[in-house]
UniProtKB/TrEMBL annotation:
Domain Haem-binding uptake Tiki superfamily ChaN: start-end pairs: 43-249
Listed InterPro entries: Cofac_haem-bd_dom (IPR007314)
Record-linked Pfam families: Cofac_haem_bdg
Protein keywords: Lipoprotein
This protein's name: ChaN family lipoprotein
Organism: Hymenobacter fastidiosus
């Protein structure tokens, strides 16, 4: 039998082993860090044993948002309600409003008018916050107020020196030491250009990113009661390669069992591209032509 014919005959078997038929149109696929096909239940069981789970999303990906909601519901069940949800999408200075909403003190209209929700809040994050309100588990906004990250991006971390003590309470304790050798930050140098003419500007951008990462890590460390699972939702760049937020979180508690998910886009879903391997403990692959929320 010709070699090409053998390959064609083996293709249906290979696809079946990967978990789908040749005529399937899957909306997503899951893989382990090594690129082995994984099933949702397998991932769920492993994540439920962690102390902290980072779900690295693409902010405009509807599949990731849907899966986050399913995962939150299932982890809540498996951990018997001992779950805390952390969200990059809310900043530290609106935490009192987040608490008042999830405990039923504010209406949807009141909360959304005051808490500076992201433009895609209604479609992408509101179902999660409503779930917390219904099931009575805590939601923690972890991000630095964007106006202070903007100050740093324009003028370096020294721009924070004049802030008042009450304002600094919304940030990671200062001064902040930035490790420019973290892989994510080194990649930012390559992305933005590291030549002498742009070095200062690129360094400020990295400092602003570090301020976000370190602030989220600081408040996540405070938010997790003993025995609880903390599920944190953030842009994938903040947690890919166990970098970013996780690097700062490990400084305060290296013993935490941390697992990660990263969301990537690919033209084909049959196998995980090599450049996406090892990004996270589990990699969620969605079609490159999937509809976006914005």
């Amino acid at each position: 039998m010709p070699i090409m014919t053998k390959k064609i005959l083996l293709l249906p078997l290979l696809l079946a082993l990967l978990g789908f038929r040749a005529d399937d149109k899957p909306a997503y696929r899951l893989f382990t860090a090594a690129g082995k096909a994984a099933r949702y239940e397998q991932m769920l069981r492993e994540l439920a044993r962690a102390d902290v789970v980072f779900f690295g999303e693409q902010h405009n990906d509807p599949i990731g948002h849907w899966l986050t909601l399913q995962l939150t519901q299932d982890l809540l069940r498996l951990r018997q309600g001992q779950l805390v949800l952390g969200l990059e999408m809310f900043e530290r200075d609106v935490q009192p409003l987040v608490d008042q909403y999830t405990t039923g003190e504010l209406t949807d209209e009141q909360f959304e008018a005051q808490s500076r929700p992201w433009p895609n809040y209604a479609t992408d994050y509101k179902p999660l916050v409503q779930l917390a309100r219904q099931q009575k588990f805590r939601v923690v906004g972890t991000n630095v107020p964007r106006r202070y990250a903007s100050l740093v991006a324009k003028g370096s971390l020294t721009a924070l020196d004049t802030l008042s003590a009450p304002t600094k309470a919304w940030l990671v304790p200062l001064p902040l030491t930035v490790d420019y050798e973290l892989p994510g930050y080194r990649n930012m140098v390559r992305m933005f250009g590291g030549d002498a003419a742009h070095a200062a500007g690129v360094q400020n951008i990295i400092q602003a990113q570090a301020l976000k990462d370190a602030t989220m890590a600081h408040f996540l460390a405070q938010a997790r009661p003993a025995g609880h699972l903390l599920l944190h939702l953030n842009g994938s760049y903040h947690s890919d390669n166990h970098d970013g937020i996780i690097a700062y979180l490990r400084q305060s508690n290296p013993a935490l069992r941390v697992l990660t998910i990263s969301t990537v886009m690919q033209e084909q879903l049959g196998q995980l591209a090599k450049d996406h391997r090892q990004k996270a403990d589990f990699v969620l692959v969605v079609p490159a032509d999937m509809t976006r929320t914005y």
